[in-house]
Amino acid sequence: MTTKNNKDLAKHTLAELAPGDVATVDTFGSVGQTVRRIMTLGINPGATVKLIRKAPLGDPLELEVSGCLLTLRAEDAAGVLVNEVRHG
Predict the structure, then answer these.
(1) Which of 22, 31, 44, 65 is 20 to 30 A from 85, alpha carbon to alpha carbon?
(2) Domain of 81?
(3) How far is residue 88's CA from residue 65's CA, in Å, rounded to a whole number?
(4) Any idea what the CATH number is for the domain that residue 70 is in?
(5) Is 40 a residue whose pLDDT tops 80?
(6) Sign of CA dihedral 66, 69, 73, 78
(7) Radius of gyration of the chain (CA)
(8) How many domains does the chain have?
(9) From residue 56, how far is each of 53, 61, 74 by CA, in Å?
(10) Structure pTM?
(11) Burial of 17 by CB count in 10 Å (0-12 exposed, 13-18 middle, 19+ buried)?
């Protein structure tokens, strides 16, 4: 049985967020150099990330993390799993 609360806790990726959404980073879908680069930008498990906007064709994404604005390719954002999504 699926309840609204269980649905809200389902995993999403950064690429699936809409502008204004705020989420908490949970984990990464892969490992390697791309994940290390993303983590050096401050996108680490437990970090709060806000999607500011998407480019007209959906790539890249502008994110706010710890008061800094970052640009991330949609392909890379699709590998970052988030939870606790709050719609803005």
Answers:
(1) 31
(2) 4-86
(3) 16
(4) 2.30.30.90
(5) yes
(6) positive
(7) 13
(8) 1
(9) 9, 10, 12
(10) 0.81
(11) buried
